[in-house]
Model the fold of this input.
Amino acid sequence: MTTRARVLTLNCRNENAMELFPSRRWTRRRPHLIKFIKDCAPSVIGVQECTNNMAAQITEGLGPNWTFWGSGTAKIIWDAVKWVALDQFQAGLPYRHLGLTRQRPITMLKLQSIKTGEFAWFVDTHLVVNIPDEEPIRQQQIRHAITLIEERPDHERVIFFGDFNSVPTDASVRKIASNAGYRHLRAKLSPTMITRRTYNTFNGWKITKRESRWIDDVLTSSAVKPYTAAIMLTDSTKFPIAASDHNGVFAKVQFGLPPSP
Done:
């Protein structure tokens, strides 16, 4: 039986970040970000730069049936009326910076559709940025992430959320993922199936420019088919103040049938 899911990935901007402008602080942005999610109406969300406090307040705002998992700042949030968790895994993607070993979180949750009984792994991560040699480090991190996914049981169906800090098509992060069987939205969908396809996913608190800077994405394994997608704006064209410094990437996906040839 085919299972369809509305999914969203979003960098929420960590509440502990230094914000000189009051409008960028979490307490001011929170209701707008919750409204943004409600407007998108997903049933599973991958969030980055999201503390436990932020995730608790988001799920409370979405309703009593919503919950989250992940102890790091990359978390999965889901509608428990539609999904039940079967398995979970989290780890760090290590890298070296200033002589120290650090880690970026990766969170994986195996969710089963209550309606159809079918399941998939939902994965979320946030790769490095703003450090020397960041692109080779991101390459190492995406390889490590793929290895961790493939070590999980029943890993054929994967919806992979992320702030990859890398633009699509020719960027090495997506090329490595594609070689391993994970395609990004632009590679899998025709331009007519992706609305607002020329907008940034990183808006930097400004009105979103049309320069195709997709640093956030939804990757899918070959057994998962996205059939529509969109950049969903969080900027000041849509809300009184920007809900985040990133826009959301929304997709409708399906799985449960043999993958398309």
Remarks:
- The radius of gyration is 17 Å.
- The CA atoms of residues 22 and 28 lie 7 Å apart.
- The domain at 3-255 is CATH 3.60.10.10 (Deoxyribonuclease I; Chain A).
